[in-house]
Amino acid sequence: MGRIYSHLLYLVALFGATAFTPLAAQDMAYPVPPHNPNQLFYLQRPPNANTLIYELNLENGVLNKKQPIHVYWICYAKKGQIEELTDIQRKYAYGIRTTPIDENSYECYLSAYKKLKLYLKEGDDKRYHIYATVNNKQLMVNRIFIAVNGGTLFKPNIDYVELTGIDLTSGQLVDEKISL
Question: For a Cys staple, 157 with which of 60, 64, 151, 167, CB 3.0–4.6 Å?
Fold first, then answer.
C-alpha cells in the first residue's frame, strides 16, 4: 500500500490534481519567461501554462555548492505569481538532484527522470549553463517540454520530452525529442 501511495503522490506532484485531456504542445501557447540572468532553463508541460524555472542558487553572488540550482514556479494560470515547489514536487517530480564532479561542475537529473543526465558547468563565457547530450547532439539547454497526451492522473500518457537549446557543434537553436 505504501508503494501505491508514493506513486500517487508522485503523479499529483508531477501533474497536479486534475484529470488529463489530450493536449499536444502545439495546442497551447506557452509563455516565454521574462529574462533572468541567473536562469539556466525552464520546464513546461500540460495541463496549464505554469512554468518551472531552474536558476543558479547564489548567495551574495557566490554559487551555493550544496544546492547549486533553485527551482520555482511562475504560475501564469494564477496571474503570474511566483511560488516555491512543494516538498512532494521537489522530491518526486520537478526537483533537481546534483552531484559535484569537480569545483565548478555538477551532474544533475530531474527527480522524476533519472535517465536524462544534465550537467551544470561553466561555459566559455565564464557563466554557468546546463548541458545535455540528446540524440548524439551536445546541447546547451534552455527549455524542456514534457508532452502529455491524455491518460489519467494515475497514468498520464507521456509522448515525449523535448529539449530546446544551442547545438554546441553547429551553434544553431535546435529541438531534440526523447520518445518515452
Answer: 151
